[in-house]
Amino acid sequence: MLATKQFLPLDRPRGGWSEAARADAEARLAAMGLPGKRDEYWRYTDPTSLTTAAPQAAALFDASDEAPHFDAIDRVKLVFVDGVFAPDLSDDPAVAGVELLSAGTAGWAADIYGVLEARGQNPVPRPLAALNTAAATEGVLIHVTGRTAKPVNLIYLHKSETSDAILHHCIKLAPGAELTLLENGPAAARFNKVLEVDLAEGARFHHIRAQGRDHERRAVTHVFARLAADALFKSFTLTANGVLTRNEAVIELVGDDAVAHVAGAAVGDGDFHHDDTVFVTHAGQRCESRQVFKKVLKRGAVGVFQGKILVKPGAQKTDGYQISQSLLLDDDSQFLAKPELEIYADDVKCSHGSTSGAIDETALYYLRSRGVPLRQAQGLLVLAFLAEAITEIEDEAIAEDIRVRLESWLARHDN
Question: Residue 342 is part of which domain span?
Fold first, then answer.
């Protein structure tokens, strides 16, 4: 890791099929420098703890009282412990056509690794993603040519209080292919992850992840996706606790009639800072994008949303929708939002909205007047508030797993 914005020498891996991409990323990082609090897209989130030479210690949380995420779903499990692949805890990667980054061959991966990340650096620099491309030695490479029989589940276990994990995943879907990718776990004391997804014509990608539960963890994640004609990309993230989490998504709809939905539900209590930063570019015609983010905050928790829809010249019949909302359960929490539209086509339908408020007292009174206890009534209203984001998950079994986790979180934080 790097110590300051001015200190840029990087002890990165050398040689191999990814050497050119790593060298390019290192050069881009040297030109950009690490992010600082004065940078426009970091003004609401202090990146200092993500850029120091060593991570701050993060206590391990005993989650033995709760079943693992997605445990009832038939899936291929690939486990990383503090950012290192654990074959003894994992299914055989070959079952799902998965290669490990450390053992990958050039092939198709050389055409993706660092490529989408580099495209995503313009017009907004993303230095921590460039750092990831330059330094990552662990991750998965998945090339799907048909419809996968089972979801692939990446599980991130946190075992060391001072672990500093960097993972880089590359996914390529051939025309008409389909994949569901699940991710869950606290990962490390500090976690930097890049996920690059390249979707060919008619491909369908479903991404559901759950971030938690070790509260003192810090994470910055990046999703870079490129969609060809008729491709479908859907991503949902549940975040429960975490001192600092920043999730970035950079989506390009380059082919006609592509669809991209990015959604998230975050629930935080106390020293919780959660930042969703999304940039969706429409370049093809008749494309649809949705950004749906909901945050429930209490006892001084902070939520951030920075979302942009860019419609390029010629991207006619674009349908772009963006909504960011927070539910503040006390007067100490805050929600900071920066929604943006930048449109260079004249036949489009784009809208954005952002709201922040407390629980609806009328709805609460209605439930209480019908005998629903106060805490239960508040919990029902919170779940109803988050429902719009959860409905972005197409698989009902996975959606139900997310609802159960939210109910569990509310039960633990009901005072």
Answer: 19-356
